[in-house]
Amino acid sequence: MTPGSATPAVSVEHLDVDLGGAPVLHDVSLEVAAGELVGLLGANGSGKSTLLRAMVGVQAASAGTISLFGRPVKDRRVHAKVGYVPQFAAGGGSIPATARETVATGLLGPGRWFSRLHDPRVDSLLSDVGLSGMADRPITQMSGGQRQRVMIARALVRSPQLLVLDEPFSGVDVATQDAIAAIFRRLSQRGTTVVVVLHELGPLSEDVRRAVVLDRGRVVHDGAPEDRPLFDPGHDHQALHEECLGQEIHP
Amino acid sequence: MTIAPWDLLTSDIMRYPLIIAVLIGLTAPIVGTYLVQKNLSLLGDGLGHVALTGVAVGWLVGAWISASPQDLLAIPGALVASVIGAVVIEIVREVGHTSRDVALAILFYGGIAGGVVIIQLAGGGSQSLVGYLFGSLATVTATDLVIAVVLAVIVMVIGIGLSRVLYTVTGDEEFARASGLPVRAMNILIAVIAALTVTLAMRIVGALMVSALMIVPVAAAQSVVVGFTRTMRTAMAIAVVCALGGLVLTAYVDLPPGGVIVLLTIACYAVSLILRPIVQRLRARRTEAESRSGVSEPMPADR
Question: What is the DSSP letter of A227?
Answer without folding.
Answer: G
